[in-house]
Amino acid sequence: MPAVSFADVCAAADRIRRFVSRTPVHTSGTMDRLSHRELFFKCENFQTTGSFKYRGATNAVQKLDAATASRGVVTHSSGNHAQALALAAKVRGIPATIVMPRTAPAVKKQAVLGYGGRVIECEPTIADRLRVVSEVERETGAVLIPPYDHPDVIAGQGTAALELLADVPALDAVVVPVGGGGMLSGYCVAIQGANPTVRVFGAEPLNADDAARSLATGERQPQVPPNSIADGLLTNLGELTWPIIQKHVEGIFTVSEAEIVAAMRLVWERMKLVIEPSAAVGVAVVLGEAFKATNARRVGVVLCGGNVGLDRLYW
Amino acid sequence: MPAVSFADVCAAADRIRRFVSRTPVHTSGTMDRLSHRELFFKCENFQTTGSFKYRGATNAVQKLDAATASRGVVTHSSGNHAQALALAAKVRGIPATIVMPRTAPAVKKQAVLGYGGRVIECEPTIADRLRVVSEVERETGAVLIPPYDHPDVIAGQGTAALELLADVPALDAVVVPVGGGGMLSGYCVAIQGANPTVRVFGAEPLNADDAARSLATGERQPQVPPNSIADGLLTNLGELTWPIIQKHVEGIFTVSEAEIVAAMRLVWERMKLVIEPSAAVGVAVVLGEAFKATNARRVGVVLCGGNVGLDRLYW
Fold first, then answer.
1. Helix (H, G, I), strand (E, B) or coil at B121
2. What's the number of domains chain B is made of?
3. Domain span at B178
4. Among positive and negative, which fits the CA dihedral B166, B168, B174, B178?
5. Which of B272, B306, B311 sits opposite A45 (nearest CB)?
6. What is the DSSP letter of B116?
7. Do B86 and B98 share a domain, yes or no?
8. What's the complex ipTM?
9. For labeling, which of A119, A271, B31, B77 is most exposed (least CB within 10 Å)?
10. Measured between beta carbons, which residues in chain A are less than 8 angstroms from residue B50?
């Protein structure tokens, strides 16, 4: 019995509709020519807080009963989930505590503070992170909303797939970046329920390829220390996300760092969209040689976020 | 009698609808907070060829009768009009010759060639540019389609204003960057016809402020050698555009280079839109102190283009 059902995704869509952006789908003649197919880009870089994470965080926060919600929420993240949860909590009018390694960039802490979250620093180890989160839970009664391995988060992320399928008829496939697998598993559940003829592929950095290895071996594999600029995709597949991905994902394509950078530049240059490296991973896949074997003609590509430091260029 | 009527703009809209993108209007809570008003960004950076220039070029090219069209079109430009005219001609199936100074960046020549245009180099002087254009006209019978001072070009640029007014009810004002004035005069004519209660303001770099000086003095002023990163706004007001602007534009606000750069970075960072410096000029105006005197609450801001070299950052 999977952790998330199609009914959960549909309920999430109803629940969060008032709070999230219905992001547009962009197309590009240049990208179509380069990829030799028709591409439909789901622009989650335009989502509130700059990434798809706001969907899952909003669904989880809005689903809490009033008594539980009043005690607040807590998570550990230095990435997009941190900002997403901070704002989702603020919108509901409840406190959010974000536990961040003291080594996280100041700009990420500022972003969370800007959305009204409270930041508590921890040592940059998993053990200390979990220790501090437990402390916050104990002291405040706050509910932990993890970044991906949670049914309400997964269901929330799946709502983007419902929009994509509604906006683009007759899609052959979707390509979804995979880190912890919250977005990919959400897409799987949504597509399985809405139109199971649409094939689902994952996109992963070669230098953080635990999902590809997991799918190849049939066992959830640990992430070996990852080394990719796609900083949203460095985590390990979750316990809840993995079985869903294993069942529904047809294949996971990996791309090199150079391919990620080239795809990112291309999207900035030709589509005028600021996307983060993690979002470029899916673009690199559909531009790559290996993907040709799928023969997929009309392909949805998820531009999962646009939160990227602009103090330097990546090329 | 102005060079362009509202009927011309409406006819242009009908003529080019099949060829141009109906660009979206984006909003941003962050930008609203920073500007203390409601902003509606017309995303012409998403227009085909990356700028609004494709509207005017397409209108001029599509309006040619078959015999004239068959001899092709010619222009002198190293900017967005060059790319726009090259593609507009290609779409109609006729040749386009673009005269460019031999000092123009290779990437701009490549862009024109990529859209199927023919590039002829000239010396980087106005005299030589005109000489070479005349030569092309004489030898091929091609029609000159200038970048802004042409009724069909102005009418084409005005079509974006019709879309903006249709998409955003109850606008108080629009802020439009001004270089040669093709876009600004087109907006004037369109708004005068569609809803004259909407106030029209120009936005100009302080370092290329011929339009502001012209409006202040009531006489078309020459551009003193301009010195701005907003490379689309360095030209002088045109003979046809100036009287329209003089009659309908309520004021022209100027901004510093630092304000342009800061606005550009803000739009990239918070709105995830790649815009060029010229587009940031309008954004800088609505964020600036001087604009507050207008008391305009709901304001359309034209993001005129997104063609910017990505080899370096501007901040």
1. strand
2. 2
3. 6-50+151-303
4. negative
5. B272
6. T
7. yes
8. 0.95
9. A119
10. 272
